Amino acid sequence: MSRDQDMFNCGEYYEATYVVGLYNDKADKTVREFLEEKCDSNEINNSTHEDVYELLEANGFVRK
Question: What are phi and psi of 59, to 5 degrees?
Answer without folding.
Answer: -105, 20
